[in-house]
Structures are given as C-alpha cells and as structure tokens.
Specification:
The strands form two sheets. Strands 8-14-13-12-9-10-11-15 form an eight-stranded mixed sheet, with helices on both faces. A seven-stranded mixed sheet has the order 1-7-6-5-2-3-4, sandwiched between helices. Helix content is 38%, strand content 22%. The protein contains 14 helices and 15 strands. Strand 12 and strand 13 form a beta hairpin. It folds into two domains: 173 residues, 2-Layer Sandwich (Endonuclease, Chain A); 178 residues, Endonuclease, Chain A. By secondary structure, it is α+β, with helices and mostly antiparallel strands.
C-alpha cells in the first residue's frame, strides 16, 4: 500500500467515487489568511458567486461578507447564498436585508418553523464558496468574529481552510446545488462550465469529492473514515473540533496501532464551544489509551480544524468532524487529496499545534474523578445527537 495508485484504487473501489485529476490546492491557516483570500475571490468574480455556510453570526467579518456579496449582485453578477436556518439563526436581519435588496438570492436551508419538525435535527454543515465555477473554498470556517485573527489567544479560533482550483471544483458545485434544489425546488441547469487552465489541468494532485446527506443509515463519511484508517501503514493524524467516535471506529483505531501504525488525535482542550461534546468523546479515552492511541488537547484556543492525514500522503479535509453528527446527522462535504506536498504542509501544522497541546496521560486519566466519570456516562444518553 505504498504507492499513490494503490491508495487511489482502494478509495475509488470502496466508495465508488472517482478522483479528479488536475487540481491545485492552497492551504489557508486561520482567519488572517482565510478571509482575505475568500473576499478577494468574491471581488474578482465576473459571472457567478455561490456561497453556502452553516455558521453566519456577527462581527466585522459578517458585515464585510454581506457587503461584498451585495456589491457583486449590484454589479450584475449572479449571487446565490444558502444559509442553514439553525447555524445562521443569529445572523443580523439587516445583513440579510442588505443582500436581498441588492439582488442576492438568499435561501434558508430547512427553516425551523416549517411543519416537518423531524428535519430540524438534520442540517447542512457544509461550507462552500465557488466563484465563476473555477475557484472554490471549503473547510470548517464560519463567518463570525471568533474566526478572525491568527489563533493568538482564546478569542481567535484555530482553523484550516482550503482554496481549490481545477476539476474538483465541479464536485463542490454539485454539493452546493444539492442543497440549493431543496430550498428552491427547481434546479437551475448551468450549461457553461469553465475548464481549468492548462497549468492547473496538468497538475498531478488527485482529489476525490465526498458529499454526504443526512440519512437513516451510516453515510459515505463513515465508509471513508473506516477505509482511511484501514489503509494506513505508518501514521494516522487527526485534528477535529468534536471527537465522538463509535465502537467500530475505536476498534479500528486500536487495530491500526496493533499493526504498527502511529495514531495521534488532537482535539480542543479547555477552550471549546461545546463542553458537552468534549465530555461525550471522553468516555472512549480509556479504551483508546489502553490500545496505544495518542490523544492530545489543544490548549491555546478553540481548535476547529477538521483534518485526517494518512501515511504522509493522503489528506482528508472538509467540513466533517470525527463525531456521530457528521457521520449520520448532517450534510457534509469532504475532499480526499493524494498529495505529499499538501500532506507535508498539514503535518507541519500538526507539529506546530502540538507545541500548544497537552498529551492525555493514561495513568492520570485512569485516576480521574468520580464526577468526571459520571458526566461521561450521562452524555451517553444523547451521544447520537453530538
């Protein structure tokens, strides 16, 4: 399993989704790099801007995005925006009003007030920006003030985002349209698609686009995660905002260690926006630690990046966390990228983040308080919601 061909063959065979050839991916670390790149792409768009997000709240960056999107629509560019009605519930109404007044087509995904109340638990957690059909962005970033800055303190979250150019943009466009059709019923068919430049088309970077929807069964994200863990030969590194694995995932991670794979998982520590989600994942710590899995808490600020690295070659990036909700509850978008250069960059980020992390000590963890153990047990009641 040492060649790119083998990784690609197994992933395509198991998921039934081919890799796109000819792509270029740029890593954007933290808001200081992410937001300028996204805003520049919007400003330079000539024909169309499609924007889908789960979180859109308040702050200077929320104002800037609304104004830039409104400006492009006023210039005659077709601008379509999908906002998850749960994640963007606290977005100021004046920002929505500004966009709509200037001609932005704003749609709300699964409004909370509608009569299909069983759908309110299933959200679109995807984050996608596509400009003119040939530049796209995805990852975990939300449009809110906590994502601004450079993760210097707890007020600035640690995030990784990605700019994609090339044929894989088509898969991201399809993810946008899949959510768009639910909000509008009629699917607008775009007959003009731009081809990537010769320089980008000739790139060797392979990208597989995995889009999943809320389901009564396990989604492709589950299949993807299981395949990635099982194809690893030397190293697995996982950064995730919310860690809540099921028994099968725990078993696979431990089995990976048993066959000689170095497995290290990093997640938020003291600074987390969902304390209950943190506790829910901790009920599996003892089993993982006994099995040789390394666990670390990132302590500098909220860690919101969502990355899986396999053997310094395969990178899994996108919106999905390593938790039950991403695996079955929400619409997600992930990319699998076979590229050693990209993997090297992300491994460098992981090493840098470890400097601000605290490793979970197995013996100390086993001596944790009865109160903490009780909290872990209580979260199992609603574990599938997290």
């Amino acid at each position: 399993m040492s060649t790119h061909k083998n990784y690609r063959h197994v992933l395509e065979n198991m998921l039934g989704i081919p890799f796109y050839k000819g792509n270029q991916i740029k890593v954007l670390k933290n808001g200081v790099e992410i937001f300028p790149a996204m805003l520049q792409a919007i400003q330079e768009a000539k024909h169309q801007v499609d924007f889908l997000t789960f979180v859109y709240w308040t702050g200077n960056i929320a104002d800037r995005f609304a104004k830039e999107l409104a400006k492009k629509a006023e210039e005659g560019v077709r601008v379509r925006v999908i906002l998850d009605s749960y994640g963007a519930a606290f977005m100021p109404s004046e920002l929505v009003g500004l966009m709509e007044k200037k001609g932005v087509d704003v749609r709300w995904f699964r409004p909370l007030a509608r009569w299909k109340i069983w759908e309110t638990d299933n959200r679109t957690h995807r984050k996608v920006l596509i400009c003119d059909g040939h530049i796209a962005f995805t990852g975990g970033v939300g449009i809110a003030e906590e994502w601004e800055g450079d993760a210097r303190d707890p007020s600035e979250w640690r995030e990784t985002y990605f700019k994609i150019e090339g044929r894989a943009v088509r898969g991201l466009q399809a993810a946008f349209m899949e959510n768009w059709i639910e909000t509008k019923d009629i699917l607008p068919v775009d007959t003009h698609f731009s081809e990537p430049t010769d320089e980008i088309a000739s790139n060797s970077t392979l990208v597989q686009v995995i889009r999943t929807a809320a389901s009564v069964r396990w989604s492709d994200i589950v299949m993807l995660y299981q395949v990635l863990i099982q194809i690893a030969e030397t190293r697995i590194r996982i950064s995730t905002a919310y860690f809540n694995p099921n028994e099968v995932m725990v078993k696979l991670l431990v089995e990976a260690v048993e066959r000689g794979v170095d497995v290290h998982i990093m997640m938020p520590g003291d600074h987390t926006d969902q304390r209950v989600a943190k506790v829910a994942g901790e009920d599996k710590f003892e089993e993982l630690l006994d099995g040789g899995v390394k666990l670390s808490y990132y302590q500098k600020t909220m860690l919101h990046a969502k990355i899986i690295l396999i053997d310094d070659t395969v990178c899994c990036i996108g919106s999905a966390n390593f938790n039950h909700r991403s695996m079955i509850k929400d619409d997600e978008i992930n990319l699998v990228v076979i590229d050693e250069t990209l993997a090297g960059t992300l491994n460098g980020h992981f090493e840098e983040d470890l400097k601000s992390a605290e490793k979970v000590n197995k013996e100390r963890w086993k001596r944790r308080s009865i109160f903490r153990r009780g909290a872990e047990k209580i979260t199992t009641i609603f574990k599938e919601q997290i």
